[in-house]
Amino acid sequence: MVYAIVRAGGRQEKVSVGDLVTLDRVTAEAGSNIELQPLMLVDGDKVVTAADELLKVKVSAEVVENLRGPKIVIQKYKNKTGYKKRQGHRQELTKVKVTSIA
């Protein structure tokens, strides 16, 4: 089984060919291809972590869609002072499908 650990949006994701992964928003249109930076590659018993060898590894993915995450409600309240604050947030996300690890 071949899989790679890639850096994506400040986090690390374990991906293999055919996986659908949700990342922080990537500036690419739906249907376009992007390259993900590999941090580790596992090919059966062989594990590659050396930086000079990882420069040869290409992890490419196709952008499936740009979407927004679920609404997160932030509420602050202080008793007896009349202070209350309500705020919402929806994270901008991108769903990608890993097409090749070479």
How is the secondary structure organized here?
Elements: E1 2-8, E2 11-15, E3 20-24, E4 33-43, E5 46-48, H1 51-54, E6 59-68, E7 72-78, E8 83-89, E9 92-101
Antiparallel strand pairs: 1-2, 1-4, 3-9, 4-5, 4-6, 6-9, 7-8
Quote the distance from N terminus to C terminus: 13 Å
Strand content: over 45%
Structural class: mainly beta
Number of strands: 9
Counting H and I runs of at least 4 residues, what is the number of helices? Answer: 1
Q: Which regions have little confidence, pLDDT < 50, spanning 5+ residues?
A: none
Rough outline: elongated
**Could you tell me the mean pLDDT?**
96
Order of helices and strands: EEEEEHEEEE
Helix content: under 10%
Largest sheet: 7 strands, antiparallel
Protein architecture, described:
With 102 residues, the protein is mainly beta. The protein has one helix at residues 51-54, and strands at 2-8, 11-15, 20-24, 33-43, 46-48, 59-68, 72-78, 83-89, 92-101. The strands form two sheets. Strands 1, 2, 3, 4, 5, 6 and 9 form a seven-stranded antiparallel β-sheet that branches. Strands 7-8 form a two-stranded antiparallel sheet. Strand 4 (33-43) and strand 5 (46-48) form a beta hairpin. The chain starts with a strand and ends with a strand. The mean pLDDT is 96. Keywords: Ribonucleoprotein, Ribosomal protein, RNA-binding, rRNA-binding.
